[in-house]
Structures are given as C-alpha cells and as structure tokens.
Amino acid sequence: MMSTQHTQEASPAPEARTPLPRVSAEAPFTAVIFGASGDLTRRKLVPGLYALYRDGFLPDRFTIVGVARRELDDQAFRNQMAEAIREHSRIEVTEDTLATFLGRIRYHVSHLDEPESYRALNEKLNDTSVYPANRLFFLAVKPELMSPVVQGLETGSLLYPIRDARWSRVVVEKPFGRDLASAVALNRRLLARLDESQVYRIDHYLGKETVQNMLSFRFANTIFEPLFNQHFVDHVQITVSETVGMESGRGGYFDDSGVVRDMVQNHLLQLLCLVGMEPPSELTARSIHDQKVQLLRSVVPFTPDRIVRDAVRGQYQSGLLDGEPVPGYREEDRVDPDSDTAAYCALRMEIGNWRWSGVPFYLRTGKRLARRVSEIAVQFKTPPLQLFQTVECDGDVCDLTRAKPNVLVFRLQPDEGISLQVSAKRPAMQLMVENVRMHFGYQDTWHKSLPEAYERLLLDVMRGDATLFTRSDEVEAMWSIVDPILHAWEGHRKAYPIAGYAPGSWGPAEADALLQRDGRAWRNPGAPG
Q1: What is the pLDDT of residues 126-165, one digit of tens each?
Q2: Which structural domains are found in the chain, ordered by start?
Q3: Of these residues, 111, 267, 439, 487, which one is catalytic?
Q4: Fewer CB within 10 Å of terminal CB in the chain, N or C?
Q5: Is 289 annotated as catalytic?
Q6: Got the DSSP string for 326-375?
Q7: What pLDDT, in 10s, does the model give residues 465-503?
C-alpha cells in the first residue's frame, strides 16, 4: 500500500517594504528674514518654521535672524515671535518645544537702504559657531525694496558664488513686478547678481496640498489623463472667490494693484498651468517649468477686440451682507472715490495648441462674493446620444431635466478634496438616471490637518527644490497674458466699462454673459459635484 506524504508548503516570506524617503532639510542653515516686523513674518513665516521644527523636518543646527529697522534686542523679538506662534500656529504649541525653538532666533537692526547695515549683518553671520554657513534670505518686503535688498546682499558680501560648497538662496515674495516691463527689469537685476537656481519666486498657492495633487491626479491615473483634451472636455472653470472686502487697511495696497495683479497674474494662471499642461518627461523642477511655460505661451493673446468681448471687470457696490450694511468698493477706506481698479475679474481664455483647441477656459476671482472658495471644475461633453431620461429629485419627488454632463472638481479650499459628478440609475421601476457624486475628501481620508503652504515652500527652499516656485521666463509669460488687459483697462473706463455687483453675489451679470454667449453657465461652487 502506497502512502502519500503531505508536505506543508512553506509560507512565502513577507515582502520587504521600502521605507518612505525622508523629506527634510539635512544641511544646517541660517534663515534671514528681511521685513521681520511685518504681518507675513508673524502670520506665516515664523509659525511655519516652528511647525517644521516641531515635526522634525529641520536639521539639528539652524538659526533664524529677523531683520528690520525697529530697535529691538534678541529677547524682545523672541517675545513677539512667541506671541505670533501661539496665535497663528496650525499645530499645538508645547511650551518646552517653543522655548527651544525661540533659542534659535536672533534679531538684527538694519536700514535696508544703508550699505553699512549689510556689512554689519555679514560680519555677524560670519560667526559660524552661532550662524551655520548656508544662508536663506527671505525678502518679506515691499516690491520696490526687492532690488535694493539684493544689491545690499551683494555689496555686503552676503552671497556665495554659485559653485561654492556653501549655498545662498533668495526667496522673493509676490507681486513680482507691476507689469511685464517691470518684471523683466526685476528679473534682469536679480539675475545680474544671482544664478536662476538661487532665486525662489514664491506663490503660496503652489504650496497648497490640493494644488500639488493636480499633478499626481492627472499623471498617476490612466483613467483620467487621456480625457484631458478637446475630444472629451467641454470647458474648464477656475474660481477663486473671497468674501472679504478692504478690511484691515488693505484698501491702499489693493487699489494700487487690483485683482488682476493680485490674483489672476499669479494664482489663477498657475492653476491654469496645472490643469492644462502637457505631461513632464520627469518630475524635476526644470521639466515641470518647461511644460508650464509652453502652456502659457500657447494662450491666445488678448487683443483690444478680445478684451471687450472676453474680459469683464467689476466693483462691488454697497448693500447688505448677512443682514449687515457694507460699503461699496469706492467707499472703502484708503480707496480712491473715483477708482477704476478691478475688484472682480472674469476672463474667457483659449489655448491654441493641439490638446485644448476649441475648449474655453473661464477664470473668475473677486472680493465680496458669495462664498470663500477656490476650485477647478473640468466639465466633460455630454454623450452624443441621450438614451436615458434624467431626473432631479428632492426625496421621492422627481422632475425630468436635461442630461447633466460629468464634472470633475478639484476643491482647493475650504474642504479640500476631489469629486466627480456622474449619472447613475435611480432605484425605481423606471429606467431613469440621476446625478450622483463620487467624492474624496482629505479630512475624511487622513484625519489630520494639512501642512500650511508656507511650511512646504520653506522646506523646499532649504532642500534646494524649485519645483513649486516660478521661473523667470514663467513669470514673464504670465505677465505677457495679462499686460494687454491691464493697459487697456487703466484709464479707459468708457471703452472698457466697470460692471457693478451686489455684495454676497457671484459677480456682475456681464460675467454671466461670457458663458451664456457660449450656451454655458457658471457653476455654483457650493453645490454638490
């Protein structure tokens, strides 16, 4: 009798897991903040550096130097920064950690127009026992001071040559120039003293988690990227709306700049790049910037006729908002009573390339609008043959309606997430479809607060990663798009009238007409999908 021996198959060894690479600043550094007494330093920069420190992203050795003209000593400045961190930090502040962090902070009194101030700063920073040799200079100063500060850095010998083993990097805040000519001139002044790799032009929108997710969503999912073209997409809407007006004394700055310089030239055009650019050959700063510039140069220029037809500017009027009276734009503090500055802008844009030919991109942004929200909505074409009846239902009460297109929505703020509106059969005896939403929310999935934009951007500067910053030719390409609009609008109120709109609305009727002319309508960003 033959016996059969049963051998138990050995369990496969568990697959080795590759640990995630550590994304942190490895090299010791000294961060010098010009404009240390300003609002940006208090609200974003120092609280952001504290969060990076508490979460373990900074090296063991680093020093932060605040530079301003106020007569303060180190301890007085530390006390101010402690108050700022407690007020503005997104994470819990523990006093032991805060005390250790504050011990890394120093203060330097400087007059930014005096060369001697920079030489004194360099003499201080040369003590590498306190100030690590690598230098990060953050220019949280007015635009007109950027060039003098960079010149001071050079004449004070604060900058290292590009091939030096030590690094020096300069972070420049927006607005980068006032128009194309000033942006080109500023680039020339910067690049006469610095290599492009040393200049980090910051746009805090690019530090937002959901903005970064645009690249991964498009290029890591084969079911979506093949649809991002003129064969399947009907149009794209980009909305960045704010409910605030000119509170907190911002009227003086805003009336001089306007919403095109403040929002369109940078934030909205960057979002246009991310939703419309071609796939980069690799995930490097150079490759991504190359594709952005290519997209920006493909935007159909705004001629005078196109500005009349495809560009709307507006100002909010006085009225009630949440039951309370609010002033109109021209009645705001520090705003010219006869101002022609745009507090609202809507544009119909076209991209003249193979992927997007014939697909309109609608952009809008403004103050005192119905809701604070930033989103990109990609609306797809409806099926060529309507086989099903479509219904809209309130509970069990349904009405027949027109077929609704699929809409892919990237919500950047608030309630960050991605949703897709699709049609599905409604449970019933009849064969009818109803719109439903497939939704992914950051908070629902990961249950933790997202890093502040400045945290990510500051860390990238320390790491030498320029992917989320703007390159010189990228800045100039963005200005090239809006420059004709600005020159046409400024001082030409009769040819390019200013539309009024009620506070708490979604903008002027003229902006609605931009889409109605094409048989389309703006989304309500608060609506599902």
Answers
A1: 999 999 999 999 999 887 888 889 999 999 999 998 888 9
A2: 29-173 (3.40.50.720), 207-382+406-419+439-516 (3.30.360.10)
A3: 267
A4: N
A5: no
A6: E--GGGSTTS-TT----SEEEEEEEB-STTTTT-EEEEEEESSBS--EEE
A7: 998 899 999 999 999 999 999 999 987 888 899 999 999
